[in-house]
Amino acid sequence: MKDDAKMFPKGSARLGRKVVAGLSLAGLAAIIVAFLGISSRQKSEADLTRWTNAQAIPTVEIVSPARGVGRQQLILPGNVEAWYQAPIYARVNGYVKMWYKDIGAKVKAGELLAEIDTPDLDQQYEQAKGELAKAQANEALAELTAKRWEAMRAQNAVSQQNADEKVGDYNASKAEVSAAQADVARLAALEGFKRIIAPFDGVVTSRNIDVGALVNSTPTGPLALFQVADIRRMRIYVSVPQSFSGELHVGMTAELKLPQYPGRSFAATLATTSNAIVQKDRSLLVELHRDNSDGILQPGSFVEVHFELPANDEVLRLPASALIFRSNQPEVATVGADDRVRLIPIEVGRDLGTEVEVLSGLTTNDRVIKAPWDSIADGDEVNIAGQQRSAAEASAR
Question: pLDDT (tens digit, 9 = 90+) per residue, 253-312?
Fold first, then answer.
């Protein structure tokens, strides 16, 4: 002990204790710093996790089903046709002698459009008239002979059989005259077809012949010489889907829009329907009429027909983008009070284009996701567009 005291004086001992105490304080400070760093890092990681989870929740736009909002417009393609329209064919064989009316010409009923030169028909007609004259001469001779033999029979100069034969010859001659007259009348009618005339008042919309062209009346694909249309009034034909056919009625007005008249519309009146659904496309053929004294409408034109239909307060309407098709019945994704998704099956009515009718499954209070994603499922959490949520709410969820 004495030796130790000599080797380590009292000052040295106090110095050693101070060093130990300093080292202990430094170690404690290091531990505190490390603890604070780890705690800060853990908090940052927790905040990042909460932020990431909050960002992972999709934000959706919601809509509420609407009940019969105003009147609805039905737009369908249609075809414009003339009030009367007739292709004019040749009834005789021959060559075009001359045509007198070109496309766009206004004509009256019975007005001459063209003439056909028919040398073969003319010869047949002259021959038929000659055959008629011959038959009439034979008839006259047979009549005289029959009268003479009847007179001789009265005097018992000839037998009854011979007299009856002469009367029979006379009757046969009369029949030949009738046949010859019928043939002449037939050919005379054909002679009249050499003149091509307009069947009614209208406009020539097509001319397919020229001078010297060969025309014929054979039924194998004859070419129409002219096309004449009465455009003082017009017919517009529209195929209306079966689902809308019950809302149309005779007398209702529709608007017509044509590509060649942008920004303008023309009124037409529903005149009649076919009263039958076409099975091919399940549509009803509708005919509208419009006075065309202004010459605006042209036969063959495409037209957009706009029908104004009354709103149906018994059904709801949703954007078509809200529908989900995964099974036999369509569904929509609704958002509950807890901001979680609930898939609801619905019954869909008519397709209105950008909207559809919902017949059952929803109320006007439901919050429906306007554009759900493909993988959406029951229980998914969502953020509603325009609704802010705090980090604490997000972490609590």
Answer: 999 999 999 999 999 999 999 999 999 999 999 999 999 998 899 999 999 999 988 776
Distances (CA, A) of 289 to 81, 233, 236, 313: 10, 7, 6, 31
Q: How many CB atoms lie within 10 A of CB 51?
A: 13
Give 223-236 pLDDT, tens digit per residue. 889 999 999 999 99
| Cα distance between residue 368 and residue 333, in whole Å | 6
Domain 90-116+197-224 CATH (choose: 2.30.22.10, 2.40.50.100, 2.40.50.840, 2.60.120.200): 2.40.50.100
H runs (alpha helix) in the chain: 2-7, 10-56, 119-154, 160-192, 242-245, 391-396
Please, what sign has the CA dihedral across residues 370, 372, 377, 381? negative
Residue 97 neighbours by CB under 8 Å, 6+ apart: 114, 115, 116, 117, 211
Whole-prediction pTM: 0.62
- What is the β-pairing status of strands 59-60 and 383-384? parallel
CATH class of 119-193: mainly alpha
**Rounded to whole angstroms, how far apart are CA atoms 255 and 71?**
15
| Burial class of residue 21 (count of CB atoms within 10 Å of its CB; 0-12, 13-18, 19+) | exposed
- Which tokens go with 283? 């549509």
For residue 39, what pLDDT is reported? 66
Per-residue pLDDT reduced to its tens digit, 316-353: 888 989 888 887 789 898 998 888 888 889 888 777 77
How far is residue 187's CA from residue 122's CA, in Å, rounded to a whole number? Answer: 9
Q: State phi, psi for 268 to the nearest 5 degrees.
A: -140, 155
Residue with tokens 């038929």: 128
Residue range 72-89, pLDDT digits in tens: 788 999 999 999 999 999
Distance CA 177, CA 3 (A): 179
Residues 392 and 41: their CA atoms lie apart, in Å, by: 19
Q: Span 59-69+314-396: which CATH code?
A: 2.40.420.20
Q: Which residues of 217-255 are buried (b: 16+ CB within 10 A; e: fewer)?
A: eeeeeeeebbbbbbbeebbbebbbeeebbeebeeeeebb
